[in-house]
Design a protein that fits this description.
homodimer, coiled coil (chains A, B), about 280 residues, Rossmann fold, globular, NAD(P)-bd_dom_sf (chains A, B), alpha/beta, 6-phosphogluconate dehydrogenase C-terminal fold, 8 strands, oxidoreductase (chains A, B), PDH_N (chains A, B), Preph/Arog_dehydrog (chains A, B), 2 domains
Chain lengths: ~280, ~280
Amino acid sequence: MNITIVGIGLIGGSIGIRLKETQFGEKIIGVEKNEANAKKALQLGLVDEIQPLDDAIASSKIIILTVPVDAIMNILPNILDKVTDQVVIDMGSTKTNILRLIADHPNRGRYIAAHPMAGTEYSGPEAAIPNLYKDKVMVYVEAFKTDEDAFERADAMTEQLEMKTTFMTAEEHDMHTAYVSHISHLTSFALALTVLEKEKSQGRIFELAGSGFESTVRLAKSSPDMWTPIFKQNRDNVLEVLEEHIKQLQKLYTKLDKEDYDGLHKLIKKSNKIKRIIK
Amino acid sequence: MNITIVGIGLIGGSIGIRLKETQFGEKIIGVEKNEANAKKALQLGLVDEIQPLDDAIASSKIIILTVPVDAIMNILPNILDKVTDQVVIDMGSTKTNILRLIADHPNRGRYIAAHPMAGTEYSGPEAAIPNLYKDKVMVYVEAFKTDEDAFERADAMTEQLEMKTTFMTAEEHDMHTAYVSHISHLTSFALALTVLEKEKSQGRIFELAGSGFESTVRLAKSSPDMWTPIFKQNRDNVLEVLEEHIKQLQKLYTKLDKEDYDGLHKLIKKSNKIKRIIK
């Protein structure tokens, strides 16, 4: 059984390394339109060979899509047109629009929407690492619409990645990821812009930056090519959470502005409840 | 030479462990009004003994203040009243107000304003760790107003902590820390409040939280007793940076709201310049 990975960056490349390590499948085939990245992926051993998309589809049993979500929207219907008994796994970070797009496709049953909750702020084939997925959560969305055998083949692949699994509706998935992933990126982007702006008038401003700053700003290194489409595809949820986040910042602002230090202390103490969630 | 540490939590306790490790000074004396913390500090070996403040001042050559900044404002003038040839090091996170407060004190020369750019989101004596300060930056503020011998004694202590040093004015220090430390905490507090709020209606919302979320929200575990006084003492700068940060978030909001994806892509790309600063 051959496996095709479409898009060999951080996400796809890390799957490639790991599946080669566990020898799941005979050949790992990469599809990559960026020639420099295709070359690098081969050099780094992330895939066994690079093929054109149509050839790769024809010769594989599993086709994994790890390109940005807008690219998935573009190519998925055409890929589904061409499959017979393959399973197509979409690994994108948003699900509602894509599921709507292919809802009535005759080969809908060969498709599974999945989202591995794993990643780093780096991108490209050089960023791929073998243990990216270990012990992380794979979310399956609307899995009951996938053919039984197709789901089982996809889930066998997920097992190779040593992931835990969970099931959600598309609406749940997109709202939850807006709150625990997408907003974190927006707040990092904004924080980086804030400080970079100030640096223009205050050259030494980064001299005192420590681990706290680094921690809150590191996601601002993330790729705009990956994240702009995510925000686009999950626009309503992202706007909702962003509005709420701005409201919370304004609350903190008002307490400080009005010198209501008891109120400020209470808000901070309330936020400390996050200890329940993260160790 | 004995050394007194006033306030044996994360910051003071970590100094205590390290100075005992390097055998700098004969005795490390702790001053701690919270009895449970005093007991724990002794049990953990962070200090050699606990003494009342006045006794500790009388028998020490170095007095290090590691209580919250409002407590430093309260006790520093009284401590300076009682010193003769000691050096008093204030380790607080804000400097302008404290320096104004003791500007005309007859023992001004025995005092040095210092700020170690190190910490974690944990607090209390159990949070103390021996290498907290290694390779981090100690900022000296208005050091030229400190007596030569007092500064040298303080700096010898800083060397024991294996820190790098830098010099700033109070205005520079308070503005820079607002931008690269205080704002990171506010944004984490707000992010935690945002998601905790949503959890009330969406129980499973933290199920998908991964390392990106954890990274941006971990500072929300920080102590309100430490941070409320910092925001109070650095109010003008914090309000300025918070206003700018909200403005940047609103810019991102508007781009997304108006579906200006080119504009959104450009802003994200611009924020990526943070790569220059953090590896």
